[in-house]
Amino acid sequence: MGSSIDLGKRLRDYYKIDLLTNKRANSYIHRAILAHGYLNFTLKILEYCDRGDTFTREQYYLDLLKPEYNIPKLAGFYSGYKHPDEVRKQMSESKKGEKNSFYGKSHTEEVKALMSTARKNRLTQPKPGLQVEVIDLETNVTTVYDSVRKPADALNSDIKTILRREKNGITKPYKIGIL
């Protein structure tokens, strides 16, 4: 249970394979999904509300439903949470010195040269954006964009959706609902 301003991102994050299998993203809900399988879980939007009411409504549902996978029992518990300075210092030092997997190692001269060339190429030869053509089916007007971000912004869509359609060669119309 939780409140979210970007529901799409919130829902996608629960089902991202890389987040589920990432050792650092070791949340209670991710471990449960891995242990019991996707089919044993359901995500539901209980209520849409104004941004100012999110914590009040979340607390209402926490009290009513008492969800098993909610560790904090107070709505907004982690909202704006900052670790104490001592904990932040411990986290930053956890990858220093011998605890760092690259400790005592160095890149070979060959690898250093490859990294240098790649860095120079990125700076001097910027990669052109993917050209995207969008046809408005109502007006039959075609607009050509020189990057993926521009049509995503224009269509109020997600860049990943456009890239996925392009990668998979999907040519059927992509209907956008205007709210």
Give the rounded overall mean pLDDT. Answer: 75
Specify the overall morphology: flat
Count of DSSP-assigned helices = 8
Q: How large is the radius of gyration?
A: 23 Å
Describe the fold and architecture.
It is a single chain. Strands 1-2 form a two-stranded antiparallel ribbon. The model has no long low-confidence stretch (mean pLDDT 75). Among the domains are: 7-65, no CATH class; 132-167, no CATH class. The protein is flat, with a radius of gyration of 23 Å. 42% of the residues lie in helices and 6% in strands. With 179 residues, the chain is mainly α. It contains 8 helices and 2 strands, in the order ααααααββαα.
Keywords:
8 helices; 179 residues; mainly alpha
Question: How do you describe this structure in short?
Answer:
The protein is mainly alpha-helical and 179 residues long. Helix content is 42%, strand content 6%.
Furnish the topology, listing elements before pairings.
Blueprint: H1 7-15, H2 17-21, H3 28-36, H4 54-65, H5 85-93, H6 109-124, E1 132-136, E2 141-145, H7 149-155, H8 159-167
Antiparallel strand pairs: 1-2
